[in-house]
Amino acid sequence: MNIVMLTNTYLPHVGGVARSVAAFSEEYRKRGHRVLVVAPEFPEKIKGEQDVIRIHALQNFNGSDFSVALPFSGHLRERLEAFRPDIVHAHHPFLLGMTALRISRAWELPLVFTHHTLYERYTHYVPADSQALKRFVIELATRYANLASLVFAPSASIAALLRRRGVKTAIAEVPTGVQRQHFIAGNGNKAREKYQIPQSAFVLGHLGRLAPEKNLTFLSAVVAEFMQNNPHVHFLLVGDGPMAKEIKDLFASRGLSARLHMPGTLQGALQSDAYAAMDGFIFTSTSETQGMVLSEAMTSGVPVIALDANGTREVVRDGINGRLLPRENRGDFIAALQWLCEQTPQQRHKLKQEALRTAENFSMENCATRALALYEPLLKHNWPLDDSLYAQWHRLRNLIGAQWEILEGVTGAAGAAFQHTPPRWP
Fold it and tell me: Is 202 exposed, middle or buried (0-12, 13-18, 19+ CB in 10 A)?
């Protein structure tokens, strides 16, 4: 099977979508399938990458670490004709997502769309952020989903949300799997030594982009208050982003800098070692579609304390493999941290075993098997190769139809955004 993936974010950018595309692509290739990734350029180049087409992009959009792909490329058509895709898989509804729609329509190929992101939670990256803009991106994603042959939802709660929003296309729950072998071998003692964390310390941890949509202001305040009353607790915060300085300043103002450890973005063995160094993983984001880092933490045997939200409630079982808190309340969260800290060695071992058991459901092997099985019924195996005048006209007609669908979707979404109807999000 030949699969072309189009994504607005990809390695070396560190984020859930980029990691998802890379993980699925790697697993598909292991099984003998061919994958071609179409993604933006980033300032940092990856040497020797194969089967990746880089599209010219605007770098560091609006001061963020995102690249915004310009949705056209002179050599894309030639590469696609040589690759001969069977499936077009879009990971965003705009920019390269529009290119994915054009490709699928022009060559009459099935279009699969993974709804990775609650886009309304990210509009603060756009200068004209407003409630109308939030309604617009929701409508745009919904209309795009209805143009696809199949929609992948990363969790059951997101699948239900998409149906409430009006997605009529078939929706399948396909989470991003965890490559278990990358995390099982983590060496926590090695990480503690590297970051000068005492072996006897109780380590709370978090991994992800340090950005406003991750609700890190609440997380930092809760952890800092808990650490002030528990001098043996350290905080290992892995990642980088626009909130890094704000978090450092908060802990410095509380006299906690020596117990805050911020190694930046980690990959490979360094990342798995960091997970293994944690006694508890804390997560306060409510903007996720899937708790991918929660699955990774549990694969490392680390219990999780998180707020109940889309993507977390499928992973965290309250009192079994961690704590799932129903609301954002500082006192409740601190009490949950205290509960975890006071567990006996036997109770901690049981939490670890339950975390490992949960993680098995989110292995990359299981998730890739499910995705490939869902692709199979969509295959047509009739990729048109001839360059006859009729074939060229047929493709042009389909491309014009795709452009009309895009225009109709954008104008329809814009109209709905300014109708002041009740918002279609929780």
Answer: middle
Tokens standing for 353? Answer: 């075993």
Helix (H) or strand (E) holding 237: strand 233-238
- What residue has token string 């490329």? 73
Residue ranges with strand state E in 333-400 = none
pLDDT at 290: 82
For residues 263 and 195, is the Cβ–Cβ distance under 8 A? yes
Three-state secondary structure string covering 3-38: EEEECCCCCCCCCHHHHHHHHHHHHHHHCCCEEEEE
Q: In whole angstroms, what is the distance from residue 130 CA to residue 120 CA?
A: 10
- The closest of 258, 268, 306 to 191, measured between CA atoms, is 268
What gap in Å lies between CA 262 and CA 264, rounded to an integer? 6
**Where do we find the tokens 């982009």?**
209
- Is the pLDDT confidence value at 61 over 50? no
How many CB atoms are closer than 10 A to CB 344?
Answer: 8
State residue 13's pLDDT score: 75
Ranked by mean pLDDT, which of 153-157, 369-373, 393-397, 404-408 comes out on top? 369-373
Paired residues of 203 in beta bridges: 234
